[in-house]
Amino acid sequence: MEGVSDCEFPPMRTFHSGQPFSTPTSDIAAALEEVSIPTLLLSMVHLTGDPRFVRDFAQAGLFLNEVQGFMSEEDKARARAAALPAIVEYRDRGCPPPAPLPPELVKEMLDWAAAEPVDDDNLALVLEELDLDGADPRRPTALDSDRTQPYRVVVIGCGESGILAGIRLRQAGIPFVIVEKNAGPGGTWWENSYPGARVDVANHLYCYSFEPSNHWQHFFAEQPELAAYFDDVLRRNDLGEHVRYNTEVVSAAWDDDAATWTVTVRTGDGTETLTAQAVITAVGQLNRPQLPELPGRETFGGPSFHSARWDHDVDLTGKRVALVGAGASGFQIAPAVAEQVAHLDVFQRTAQWMFPNPMYHDRVPDGARWAMQHLPYYARWYRFLLLWPGADKGLDAARVDPQYPDQDHAVSEVNALARMMFTDWITGQVGDDAELLAKVLPDYPATGKRTLQDNGSWLATLKRADVRLIRTPIERVTTGGLVTADGETYAADVIVYATGFQATALLAPMTITGRGGADLHQQWGRRPYAYLGVTVPNFPNLFMMYGPGTHLAHGGSLIMHSELQMQYINSCLEHLIRAGARSMEPLPGPTEEWHRRTQEQITGTVWAHPSIAHSYFKNADGEIHTVSPWRLCEYRAFLQNPDWSRFHVRADETV
What is the pTM of this model? Predict the structure, then answer.
């Protein structure tokens, strides 16, 4: 259409631009009482094209899970009063899709929303997450079906990363099958159905960037809603026919002559083999329960089970329950069952640092859900308000400053401030109970282990007359309960082991055999490693999601990490298919250099602090090989454009 400028075409409506509405004005006004005001103002810029909605207001700051920008009640009321007529006028115009904003205005809005300049290193990442044009920038290229049809990929696991792998492979046109040991999708959210189970990353961030949900019932969703989300995503992306449930991978072996993987699976009918040109492992790190080696554990006379294998046939009502472990799972279980049981004994090895989160159990109010659904880009900016303070700010508190004087107390000034805040939160709830305070206040630097979040329910539970917190180590289990090292006996009708997972045993118990008979677990020993956390020398066409060195301990979302990793894997597969190559694997040199750099970074964090003996980050040697020490934007940059010079790519003529 020669002579017609782009601006004369009406903008296209995307999922992010909001759904049209005819909501009465009084109902809109009521909804605005329940929204995040900074997010509302950002949405108003899109709706009106007028930057005054951010220029005439100021956030006092931004903090994790504080979505009102510390704005005064007066300013919030002023913002609602300014927004309401604009929304009504937009409604009366028929809710047209907003015109795109100039890039410089979007950057101004980002800086305003962050309450600080968004640095150039982070800009690309946050713009991807915002995805204001609805383009899904991490979507792979659709490949020529003539090239992809002979290809096949086996994806191991149908949790969040396995579902993601299936979506992206389907979009690329690469044939695949997903093998899942459970009877349904969702991974950890299928398995962990214990009372109180919920996510500890705000849900509007803990979802796929291209599959947001504006319908979350809670800000931090409970397990049934999370399981339903992943099941819904799987169904809407037509993955059902590609998934084999109740099928567990026993082994995978590479055939160098055929350039294929032979994957042996176990079903209820026995074993069989699958053949594929590539394998993607999407099994997670927290999916194999860790039961404590306690003498007499098998002799207990009542029901006992791990929290990830919760026995819903056991009624806890009126029972004496022993909860062994008070990390992330126990922290959620105790408040959820305390009112139901007759008595609860909580056995905790190490006190946990926690930070305040008043929204932790809150439902998303109807007004906020209305705004998510209808106000242009409200949901995307709300996601940013969760991402920015919850991303690399935690890494700042984890970095060791060697010049900080008292390393036993804190590892830096920022870390000391975190410790002070956490301490104030804990002591403010415990009150004058010196005995309880001594038990619940950690003696190691803040953020050294997984930091839990609380709205007061945990410490309120421990203050109940029918709940005891025991810090003395358990010596043995008897037919009627547990005995601690001081000889004290604790009677129990039911024992729940909330004792975590075999987090450092990556890809166990599968046997994975690579080129020349290399055994992956023997090659790793106790030190699992992978180039960029994704590929390993001697194991061609094996790609890992949530592999070594990619666990997030400082913030962000594992789903975001998975999206970045799968984008990288898609690039690798595309390179193989377009080149007609048989296989690719990383060279030893770049892989060793990556592992060395990662270890160098990890040893400079509080996670490696020598005072922390018990941490699921650490292996039996006290080393950490599972956690990512990188800023989210750094890791994204590493994965953006694969450097093929760091791989051995085998073409047909060279094999």
Answer: 0.96
